[in-house]
Design brief:
- There is one protein chain.
- About 35% of the residues lie in helices and about 25% in strands.
- The chain has about 220 residues and is of the alpha/beta class.
- It has one domain: TIM Barrel, CATH 3.20.20.
- A nine-stranded mixed beta sheet has the order 3-1-2-4-5-6-7-8-9.
- The structure holds iron/sulfur cluster.
């Protein structure tokens, strides 16, 4: 069994609630969305076998977890599941970074995954179609494990999308943490917007936080 993998490397997690912890990153090739703010350059990949992947992961030391990222890792679910299973058997913690729309694929791997970092793709941020029902179904599956939600906030992000995000989080589990991630490069005008959105979350008793992309600030991968 092989998968299209763009890169495998060790760095620190730049986003979300695990920001700054060391991880081994496995970047899957290919994505099913096209967000306007996408900064992931996926031009090439290698077909990598399972054994080769595990060997490469195990060549690294002293990391918190293995982050499966992309692109979208759930587009190659059989390989992902096999890799997660092998790592679980080795007691290695796993972290799935996902765009949060492929609930059926998630159902198949959730038992073997420790942490899910899922995106809410706010239509006013992505400039793409609404994915609320996909996100709702995905979050229901993801909350069998540790999960947090992350949304990119840009100059076009509308308050209605924050309200809708809150509604879904409350419906599934109001304890789920919500990360507001300012788009890069940071523009001053975002300050006011972030503070407004944070206030709305807090009023609704949602555990929200503003977390910017640390790896971009540090100029690392
Ligand atoms: S889901 Fe992620 S990788 Fe895919 S287009 Fe959006 S930002 Fe890029």
């Amino acid at each position: 069994m092989t998968a299209k993998i763009s890169e495998i490397f060790k760095s620190i997690q730049g986003e979300g609630i695990y920001q700054s912890l060391p991880q081994v990153f496995v970047r899957f090739f290919g994505c099913n969305l096209s967000c306007s703010y996408c900064d992931t350059e996926l031009f090439r990949y290698e077909e990598i076998g399972l054994e080769n992947l595990i060997q490469q992961i195990e060549s690294y030391h002293d990391y918190h977890s293995v982050s499966f990222t992309g692109g979208e890792p759930l587009l190659q679910p059989e390989f992902l599941k096999a890799a997660l299973k092998l790592l679980k058997a080795r007691r290695t913690k796993t972290y799935l970074e996902t765009n949060g729309v492929l609930a059926d694929a998630l159902k198949d791997v959730i038992d073997y995954c420790d942490i899910v970092a899922m995106d809410f793709k706010l239509p006013s941020s992505t400039q793409e179609k609404e994915l609320w029902s996909e996100h709702r179904e995905f979050l229901k599956v993801a909350c069998a494990k540790e999960v947090f939600v992350k949304a990119v906030i840009g100059k076009n992000t509308e308050v209605g999308d924050i309200v809708k995000s809150i509604e879904i989080i409350k419906e599934v589990n109001p304890m789920i943490r919500f990360i507001l991630q300012p788009e890069n490069p940071f523009e001053e005008q975002l300050k006011e917007k972030l503070s407004l959105f944070l206030g709305i979350c807090r009023k609704q008793n949602i555990n929200a936080k503003i977390v910017s992309q640390l790896h971009k600030q540090l100029g690392i991968k």
